Amino acid sequence: TPTRLADYTPYNFEISETRFDFRLDPKATRVRSLLKMKRTGPGPLVLDGEAIDLVSVEIDGRQLKRSEYRLTQDKLILEETPDVFTLNIESKCNPSANTTLMGLYVSGGRFCTQCEAEGFRRITYFPDRPDVMSVFTVLIDADKTAYPTLLANGNKIEEGDIDGGRHYAVWHDPFLKPCYLFALVAGEFDLLEDSFTTMSGRSIPLEIFVDPGDAPKAAYAMDSLIRAMAWDERAFGREYDLDRFMIVAVRDFNFGAMENKGLNIFNSSLLLADAETATDMNFERIESVVAHEYFHNWTGNRITCRDWFQLCLKEGFTVFRDQEFSADQRGAAVQRIKDVRALRARQFAEDNGPLAHPVRPTEYLKIDNFYTATIYEKGAELIRMLKAWLGEDMFRKGSDIYFDRLDGTAATIEQFLACFETASGEDMGQFMRWYEQAGTPRLTVRRRRTPTKPVISQVVSFKQVTPPTPGQPKKAAVLIPIRWQAIGENGPLMEPQLTVMTTKSTDVSYPRFDEPHSISVLQGFSAPVILNSDATTADLVRLMGNDPDAFNRWEAGQTLARRLLVDFAKALEAGKMPKTNPALRDYCKALGTTLNDPQFDNAFKALVLTSPSSMEVLMEAAPIDPIAVHEAGQWLSRAVADALRDDLLVTYKAMRDKTGVFSPDAEAAGRRALKSRCLALLSARFDPLAASLASNQLDNATNMTDELAALITLSRLGGQRVESSMEAFFAKWKDQPLVLDKWFSVQSMRDHADGIHAITRLAETPSYERNNPNRVRALVGGFSMGNTKLFHKLDGSGYRFFADQVLDMDSRNPSVAARLLGAFEIWRKLDPRRQALVQAELDRIIAAKPSKNVLEIAERTRG
Ligand code: ARG
Ligand code: ZN
């Protein structure tokens, strides 16, 4: 039975003080807890617990008899308790056998934890819900040689040696927190240290703990952390609160990272980087995730969620904050474009398929399944709209009220919005619909060119419709902030306008202009909607050249490309060759103009030269053969490369590094991005030029960005050099797990001559670690999301292999397995033959009696 938002009731006890005493042992860790309980409502005391052994329960020092409590699969129930009492529980768990990587587990011989959302119950019996907050004191006792470093949340208040070669440490966290923010780490680490002085003058030691030998690779994360701490003070007035801040990197981790109070735990792939082993994209992600987890200290920890339906309260706001940070550090336009590209590829796919759900869902089977692009990325878009609508000053005023009013509480979306209502006086009723309605609104814009004379004004009309989603057949109008502007041959003809649309349709007028002009709509992507515009090719070319809004300059090119790709894909599906046409020629010409314009930066040019993702085209052309969509992309690249060959080659050469010194900064990364883009486009012509450029680049690369781009190009080109290059890369990097992940992912996306057999062999090589989420995501995730030809092969072998891998992973790690299964969410967009094949696999998965996690995704996907 699902958990429902409507069923929320407060917990019937308060825990004024919490003490945990851990005696660490990989096979049998003993946990003693002491909880100071106070009854606040009627009913039994119910504690959560899973996969742990209960040793004893005491109330006020008296051990309970077996008949005095009830034990079920996942609960410990005490029917009768005093109103105020001390509860002592002793339990045992087995961290080394914990393959779910939720709760307490062992990774690389070190103990670590992951408790969000419901992992704490695998550690000991406790009310595992975010609205039960307490002050925690934690004692850890472990073998001193094997586990020299002992960490938990807060400040270290005591440590020392004990008999038998063991030692202990006591940690105290003075801030109220729910148990999902608990963390414990023990093991041997190298330490990278620095410090930050806060705005009130407190000096905070910063410590990053990594596997021995990896400390230099944490330098960029440390630098990012310091910049993030300074930015949060500037942008939101938020200061750090504890005496120290710690980050730990672990290799086996289900997600990206976790914001545990004062002790963030990171997937090492989002923390460790240097020029030789990490790409620019890795550096960029590290900067943003380090900031994200740090920002959670206020949006997530100081103010947490009342229940898991409110997940977007912390995640949407925190993603918005990390996006703004990245925009500040790396350039707003480029950052916005990247965020919107990701939103369209992932969130729009989710919002327009069987897994569509509101930003604040109303029911779930497993909350792990709701750490989605909708809650994170669409959640962030809602905050961005709030800011666009209310304006910068009101937005800041509202967030100040929020931090002030709700500090130390577990809050709801309603309470959050009420702060902005207080600040601005605006009614939040309609805005709330964004949280309650699933689905991507379609915004249609039509220009009315009225012929009546004399024309004093012209009109643009907007209409909004949100299509039905599972369980929500009828949708109401949402509040849409629309930024727009009329653009002429030489730039804007008016100031940018903000129209706040609150009804199903609305008309806006603007003064008459005699010169030809186009309307730039949704500048900066001011709302997460699908725009259906009547812009002509001439309009779009004009906007590509003249729109002062850099996002829409890029977007105009994307719209042109999307139209071409949909046409190409439909032609290819029908067995026809796509034809060159005037729109294609105009598009290529406009790309050339942008490429050669010195006023644009290189990162922006690289994005203009990147066409819409296959996912975007698939959604627009559905139902369709996905291989036709893939080939349409290749056709377009080839056409661009044919038209711009010389410019691309000149640019490629001009972007090569001449300094010989690697820098991960935005400028240097932008040069490498444009260079890689030129190489990728040139390779679409399948001529010897691209092969020799790529070979050269691979042989001479001094950083992973160049090395990997060259390897990927060679692997796409095929031919003799591929096998030997893949082997050489493997041999060179076999001792670097994060680079080996890249190797697996490139291999998983190749169009191997012997098809699925090659992928199956990869899954059988000794270096394929089937318990490690990063490795599994590299191979299985890479294959399902990045290998169009083999995954979607019409004999069904790709889907079958994938389903087998999901089931195999599910037997050990349900949350990662369920997430992988998301690759099937697009199945209704495929042609009927493939739909039947996917459906059969979904049925097979359901029949195999999988975990709750996988069952929920499989059933909802199937519909
Ligand atoms: N709160 C973490 C973050 O966004 C992610 C935790 C993921 N947990 C989960 N059950 N999926 O930074
Ligand atoms: Zn987060």
Automatic annotation (TrEMBL):
Listed EC numbers? 3.4.11.2
Ranges for domain Peptidase M1 alanyl aminopeptidase C-terminal come to 538-861
Question: Pfam families per the record?
Answer: DUF3458, DUF3458_C, Peptidase_M1, Peptidase_M1_N
CDD domains cross-referenced by the UniProt entry: M1_APN
Instruction: Look up and give the organism this protein is from.
Output: Algimonas ampicilliniresistens
Q: Which reaction does it catalyse?
A: Release of an N-terminal amino acid, Xaa-|-Yaa- from a peptide, amide or arylamide. Xaa is preferably Ala, but may be most amino acids including Pro (slow action). When a terminal hydrophobic residue is followed by a prolyl residue, the two may be released as an intact Xaa-Pro dipeptide
MF (Gene Ontology): aminopeptidase activity
- Supply the NCBIfam families for this chain: pepN_proteo (TIGR02414)
Q: Where is the Peptidase M1 alanyl aminopeptidase Ig-like fold domain?
A: 439-533
Give residue ranges for domain Peptidase M1 membrane alanine aminopeptidase: 220-434
Q: Which EC main class describes this enzyme?
A: hydrolase
Task: Outline the extent of the Aminopeptidase N-like N-terminal domain.
Answer: 54-181
Q: Which UniProt keywords apply?
A: Aminopeptidase, Hydrolase, Metal-binding, Metalloprotease, Protease, Zinc
Swiss-Prot/TrEMBL cofactor(s): Zn(2+)
Q: In the UniProt record, what gene is named as encoding this protein?
A: pepN_2
Protein name stated in the entry: Aminopeptidase N
Q: Which PANTHER family match?
A: PUROMYCIN-SENSITIVE AMINOPEPTIDASE
